[in-house]
Design a protein that fits this description.
- The complex is a heterodimer of chains A (470) and B (438).
- By secondary structure, chain A is of the alpha/beta class.
- Chain A folds into 3 domains: 131 residues, Nitrogenase molybdenum iron protein domain (Rossmann fold), CATH 3.40.50; 100 residues, Rossmann fold (3-Layer(aba) Sandwich), CATH 3.40.50.1980; 155 residues, Nitrogenase molybdenum iron protein domain (Rossmann fold, 3-Layer(aba) Sandwich).
- Chain A is 45% helix and 14% strand.
- In chain A, the strands form 4 sheets. Chain A has a 6-stranded mixed β-sheet, sandwiched between helices. A 4-stranded parallel β-sheet of chain A has the order 4-3-5-6, sandwiched between helices. Chain A has a 3-stranded parallel β-sheet with strand order 8-7-9, sandwiched between helices.
- In chain A, helix 6 runs parallel beside helix 8 and helix 13 packs antiparallel against helix 14.
- The longest helix of chain A has 19 residues.
- Chain A starts with 11 loop residues before the first helix and ends with a strand.
- By secondary structure, chain B is α/β, with parallel strands linked by helices.
- Chain B has 3 domains: 141 residues, Nitrogenase molybdenum iron protein domain (Rossmann fold); 105 residues, Nitrogenase molybdenum iron protein domain (Rossmann fold, 3-Layer(aba) Sandwich), CATH 3.40.50; 159 residues, Rossmann fold (3-Layer(aba) Sandwich), CATH 3.40.50.
- Chain B is built from 17 helices and 13 strands.
- Chain B is globular and about 70 Å long.
- The chains are: A alpha/beta (470), B alpha/beta (438).
- At the A-B interface, helix 4, strand 4, helix 5, helix 6 and helix 7 of A face strand 1, helix 1, helix 2, helix 3 and helix 4 of B.
């Protein structure tokens, strides 16, 4: 049976035992994942965190000549403004369901919206995004898709996110990519291969995508990049590619998996190209798979020498560093920090699952007592941990960096700097140097007290995290 | 019946209520909904209002309900979250706000809030599903909850100064200049001997809200505060003065006189204040005169924003600064009766001049009407910057959302606001004139 038959893929926790809440030494985490069953954890106190809807929107914002229609109440499109601010050219529409619609259904409104947007913009593709309300009242999106697809001769892709069926927002990437492949990439394996290679860039910073692109093009590889900065054509061409190269082993995993299983495109097993060592390993894996090993090695040594020269005396010797990042970024930055003499004080990752077992085992063998914390958006946990560990430097990419920095710890936000490749090393080093060289902003900020009670800080950092009762 | 919207700038009721509670010091909003609601509010609201982020993060408490709660109800999850919110987060007030999913499931939120109150926790609640309205309804619902439920939590009587004035109708972040606007209103009311109770912003806490019933007057600065003012009049007999728009520059003199008369203040003192402020404004006009004529300051303008802002800025530009209102777009969906009176008022800013007035929150519809009408300068949200570029005219970001402007203390209300507006409008026109002179 085709893996794309269903409306949406299984959630990450069902497919990969993904955890969104956990705290303990890496050695214990590694043991948990060595067992056949991993128990889900839940929080009895929680803070806002991203959901699959937000992550799906993040994918759609990168697809050109598209319109995105959120079939739901008006607030579900709020993040669209943020994407417009960040340069998205997608048109963001909400069907604006009112109370009556939530009871009676509103497929008529959806039809009107699709038709109006088609008339106005003549897009290449229209996305219809579900959300908690239509997931609960079961509004019939599918029949609207099938009807209008024919009537308007327009590609329409329904994306069945719910906001509540997965605890891990990363499931939203899978749901969006599932739908994009299902509706845009054709139904069969392509036997006639093109010369191109898919670069799987999922929700990356544009600098990261461009850095990877430049490296691969320097090796003479012709690229088909998706889903970031892509078009309908990129998805149509993807099944004919020779290989798929991930820019990260996590976010694009499902995309690579389906391209392999359904369309027969081999997937290059490569780490995230972050840090000198990580970028070298990424290039090496690609070199071996695509038969450009010599070029890849030459490129790596040349770029490494150039980068080291530009880094000059950059050193983290004796600096304790806390990482609070997306899982792939955190695991790939550890060698970077250590390469320059830094000491990892602890890490927070957004989620932990079977895709991270290799990294986890490596860490467990080198540094079994290192504390790993799994949380997305739970800054009260991060703040309490940081107060205890009091590291010299904090690297984070979450939406709560501004609150964490109130602890007075030198802070670098990775949200808007590309960290991939050799350029990424230089950018990150520059930011770290600045953060350590002048702490005056953070000193002032540290006089603003975070809103948590002393009694919370005095308790264990995970008293509120429980094993889920099935 | 509601209709689809492109690029909506009015978000939802839940987000509007959050904007109120986040602006009251010591108040902890507790979201009962799916996990993404708070992040949507942060990304699509807080981050786009020019640096108005009290927590430095998305909201600090949220039940993040899951499939199980959608199927079986989320009451027990809320009970647990509320109990632990009190344990973990410092607060003088915990305000439960609900999202769509939980309203569809039908959780008994009032009962949960009552359980909390029975434990002596300061808890209020408001049902704010996005399918029941936008930011403005959320603002009204939050104020209603504060007005109706806070008296039940008050343990001791609150002393209130004579001459206290509650300021209503300013929606935090939906008006990115709300802090500065409130501060300027306060400065001018203090000058005539009153004690403004701003209710939102720095130094405004739950105690400020406990003082609301004892005020001598409610000053309502937009249509969105009228419901609360009516409620307060019913409960406490407090009189109110309601304005359609934020008074900018000389328009503030009329308000000061009206307040003086209503509260029987010393007219001489008020006239003295007005005279002093007017002299300052006149001097500022005089200093601007050379640039005004040199750069062709006088031109047609398009203005896009909330009704209070369009009335305030539109009238100042038209009635005081000599500009011509070409296109005025009101984005906050006022009810039809209010639309009628607004249209009449805005249509006669410059008598005899044809002004196009549109009520819409749809990005493309707004862009079309501004583009068709043309203008020599566009003032609006960052969503309108593209149209200004298409028209090749200067642009000033004055309404939500703001993509590339930081607003910490700036405001456009009052006399101080008039000066700020002269600086900002003048600067973009001046910069534009340099581009075109080479």
């Amino acid at each position: 049976m085709s893996p794309l038959r269903s409306k949406a893929p299984r959630s990450r926790e069902k497919r990969l035992d993904t955890l969104g809440a956990w705290l303990g030494p890496v050695s214990v985490a590694a043991k948990e994942f060595a067992a056949t069953e991993v128990f889900q954890r839940i929080r009895t106190f929680a803070q806002s965190s991203s959901d699959d809807l937000l992550y799906a929107l993040r994918i759609l914002t990168g697809i050109k000549e598209s319109v995105t229609i959120i079939h739901g109440p008006r607030g579900c499109v709020a993040a669209g403004l943020y994407h417009i601010a960040a340069g998205s050219e997608t048109r963001w529409i909400v069907t604006n369901l009112d109370e009556r619609d939530t009871i009676m259904g509103a497929d008529r409104k959806l039809r009107t919206a699709v038709k109006a947007l088609y008339q106005r913009y003549r897009p290449q593709v229209a996305f219809i995004v579900a959300n908690p309300v239509v997931a609960i009242n079961n509004d019939d999106i599918q029949s609207v898709v099938e009807e209008l697809q024919e009537e308007l001769d327009l590609l329409i892709v329904p994306i069945y996110v719910t906001g509540f069926s997965s605890q891990n927002a990363v499931s939203g990437y899978d749901t969006a990519l599932h739908a994009l492949l299902k509706y845009l990439s054709g139904t069969t394996t392509v036997t006639e291969k093109s010369g191109a290679v898919n670069l799987l860039s999922v929700a990356e910073h544009p600098l990261d995508r461009k850095e990877a692109q430049a490296l691969l093009e320097a090796l003479g590889i012709e690229l088909n990049i998706l889903p970031d900065d892509s078009t309908v054509e990129s998805f149509k061409s993807a099944p004919a590619a020779r290989f798929s190269i991930p820019l990260c082993p996590d976010a694009p995993e499902y995309l690579g998996l389906i391209l392999k299983e359904k369309y027969g495109v081999p997937f290059v097993d490569a780490p995230r190209p972050v840090g000198l060592e990580g970028t070298g390993r990424w290039l090496k894996a690609i070199g071996a798979a695509l038969d450009v090993a010599d070029g890849a090695e030459e490129l790596h040594s040349r770029k490494t020498a150039e980068t080291l020269q530009q880094l000059g005396d950059f050193s983290l010797a004796g600096t304790t560093v806390y990482l609070s990042l997306s899982s792939a970024n955190a695991f790939s930055l550890i060698p970077f920090i250590e390469e320059f003499g830094g000491v990892i004080a602890g890490i927070t990752v957004t989620h932990l699952d079977r895709l991270h077992v290799r990294s986890l085992n490596e860490l467990a063998s080198q540094n079994p007592d290192l504390q790993i914390h799994v949380a997305d958006g739970q800054e009260f946990e991060v703040i309490s941990i940081l107060r205890r560990l009091s590291p010299d430097l904090y690297l984070g990419d979450s939406t709560h960096v501004g609150q964490v920095a109130r602890l007075g710890i030198p802070t670098v936000s990775l949200e808007s700097i590309g960290i991939v490749g050799y350029g990424g090393v230089l950018r990150l080093a520059r930011r770290i140097k600045s953060a350590l060289a002048n702490r005056s902003f953070g000193d002032t900020l540290s006089r603003v007290i975070p809103p948590y009670r002393e009694s919370w800080y005095n308790r264990s950092d995970n008293w509120h995290i429980k094993q889920e009762v099935k | 019946m509601s209709h689809h919207i492109e690029g909506s700038r009015n978000s939802c009721a839940l987000h509007g209520a959050l904007q109120v509670f986040e602006a009251i010091e010591g108040t902890v909003p507790v979201i009962h909904s799916t996990s993404g609601c708070g992040v949507q509010h942060y990304l699509g609201g807080t981050r786009l209002s020019g640096g108005n982020d009290p927590f430095g993060s998305p909201p600090v408490s949220s039940t993040n309900i899951r499939e199980k709660h959608v199927v079986f109800g989320g009451g027990s999850r809320l009970r647990e979250q509320l109990k632990n919110s009190v344990k973990v987060v410092q607060g003088d007030l915990y305000a439960i706000v609900t999202g769509c999913s939980i309203e569809m499931v039908g959780d008994d939120v009032p009962a949960m809030a009552k359980e909390g109150v029975d434990q002596d926790w300061p808890v209020i609640y408001t049902n704010t599903p996005g399918f029941r309205g936008d930011v403005h309804q959320g603002y009204q619902l939050a104020l209603r909850a504060l007005i109706e439920q806070l008296p039940g939590l008050r343990t001791e009587s609150v002393a209130v100064q004579a001459g206290q004035v509650n300021i209503l109708g300013v929606i935090p972040n939906q008006d990115p200049f709300w802090r500065g606007n409130l501060q300027e209103v306060a400065r001018l009311l203090e000058a005539i001997g009153l004690f403004p109770n701003l209710l939102l912003g720095d130094g405004q806490d739950v105690n400020s809200w406990h003082q609301v019933p004892g005020a001598a007057l409610n000053l309502v600065l937009s249509h969105w505060g009228e419901q609360s003012a009516r409620l307060l009049e019913e409960r406490y007999g407090t009189p109110s003065i309601s304005l359609d728009g934020l008074p900018v520059g000389t328009a503030f003199a009329a308000l000061l006189l009206q307040v003086t008369e209503k509260l029987g203040l010393d007219p001489e003192r008020t006239n003295g204040v007005i005279a002093r402020e007017e002299v300052r404004l006149r001097q500022q006009f005089a200093r601007l005169a050379d640039i005004y004529y040199r750069t062709g300051f006088q031109r047609e303008f398009a203005l896009v924003g909330e009704s209070a802002l369009v009335v305030g800025i539109g009238e100042f530009l038209g009635k005081n600064l000599g500009l011509l209102p070409r296109t005025l777009v009101i984005t906050d969906n006022p009810p039809e009766s209010v639309q009628k009176s607004l249209a009449a008022r805005l249509g006669s800013i410059v008598p005899g001049f044809d002004t196009k007035i549109l009520f819409s929150e749809d990005r493309s519809e707004i862009a079309d009407v501004v583009r068709t009408g043309k203008a020599g300068i566009v003032l609006g949200s960052s969503l309108e910057e593209d149209v200004a570029q298409d028209l090749g005219v200067p642009f000033l970001a004055v309404s939500f959302p703001l993509f590339n402007r930081i607003i910490l203390e700036r405001g456009y209300a009052g006399y101080g606001g008039a000066a700020a507006l002269l600086e900002d409008v003048g600067s973009v026109i001046l910069a534009d004139s340099l581009i075109h002179s080479v």
